[in-house]
Structure formats: structure tokens, C-alpha cells
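Dock magnesium ion; give full complex structure.
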Amino acid sequence: MHPKIVFLDMEGTLLKKEYRLDDGLVAPSAWTLLAERLGQDCLRDEQDTKKQWLAGGYKNYLQWMKATVDIHRRYKLTEAVFREVIESVEFMPGVDEALADLRGWAATTVLISGGFKALADRVQRRLRIDHALSGCEYFFDAASGQIEHFNLLPADERGKADFMRLMCVEHQVDPHDCAFVGDGMNDIHLAREVGFSVAFNAQEALRAVSAAVIDQATGNEDFREVVSVLGDRFARRDMRKDANLRTVSP
Ligand SMILES: [Mg+2]
């Protein structure tokens, strides 16, 4: 039996991770790429929000995103710079073949990301993903090119699990018959609630709650191994989660 729905994280999972921006705390993402593009002061301010988030300084993910949007406004982010950064993010090797395989299983695919809708749109279109929820959509002013308005959605942390449950209800599927693939500590809520989770080149907190762990050398990542693990092990997901279920590749 294959998973009925495969839930997918985006950054660091379907898209390559920017290891040079990884501070070992919050997983690197286009939020940080944008801040870096806007200069060292902006990067410092953005990193301060991460520290504040980890210290419990924001009520929820929406409040954290709003603080970051305020920083983007302060440093006068324009649509041109935003597009440039969004287009610069590279896909994880093997994702095209892997997603074609998931479609072959007749699995519904759902992308859930706390990142930008513009980035999720790129990924969803190329990989023909069925549903996508993302954290932030920017609307830019045509004359100035700067942020005119924005839409923020609770698409990260606990919100990832909430959206998973919503999609399961809608599709009339038990979460136990679903799989998840992600890489960050922000994915643990969702990873814990589905039948089988794969930690893909992931942070420790996610590895600890996942049924399978895929470790690949930096520069040799290949998403096709996720399909191979799901194909081999999803049907046996009720077996005890222990070291024997883990996969490690060179
Ligand atoms: Mg991620």
C-alpha cells in the first residue's frame, strides 16, 4: 500500500538548502536570502527575529512573519529584488522524477510551507503538486515597486499540522494513511501526526520524531531516495520505529 496523501515541506526538501546561511537554529530559507540581498543590517535585523522566535517572543507564526515583513518594508524591498531572489532558488535534484512516481501511485500531493507564495507557485507548477499552502504573499505597488500589501497565513509550525488535518478531512483520508517529508524543526508537529514521516537531510529535532531518516552528503542530495524509502517501508509503518527503519546513504 502506498500513502494516500504525501505532505511535502518546500525549502530544504523540494528546494535546495542554503547551507552557508544555516546558523543551526531556524532552518535557512528564502526569508534569509532576501534579508541578505537587502544588506548586512537587514540580515542582522532578520536574524534577531529568529532569536526572538526561538525565545518565545512572538505569539504565533503570523506575528513573526509580520515582524519580518516590517523589516522588508524598512529596507525598501522591491518587486524586482524579490523576483530575483525567488528565481535564484534551485530545485533539489531528483524531484521531477520523484513527484512523477508519486503521481504514478495515485497519491495526492500537498505542499505546506511557511515561505513565500511566489516560491510555492514555482514549485507547484513545475512539479504538478495538487494543493499548496504558503505563509506569505506579497502584493507590490506598480509605481514604486515596493510592498503595497500582503497576505499572511498560518502555514508553519503547528499550522502545518492543522492544514494537514483539514486536507485529510476534505479528502476523507486517515492521517495514518499519509506520509510527510521535511527537513526542519518547524516540521515536527506535522511529522508526528501522519502514519510515516521521512526526515530528509534534516535537523535533529525532526530526525527524532521521524520513522525514516535519509542522510546524504552535501552536494549529493537526491530526492528520489524518498520515493524508494516510502515504496519499501510505508506499508510496514506500524512496525516499531527504531534504528532498523532508518536509512543512511553515503
Ligand atoms: Mg524546510
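Observed: The beta strands are 5-8, 108-116, 131-140, 147-152, 178-182, 196-200, 212-214.
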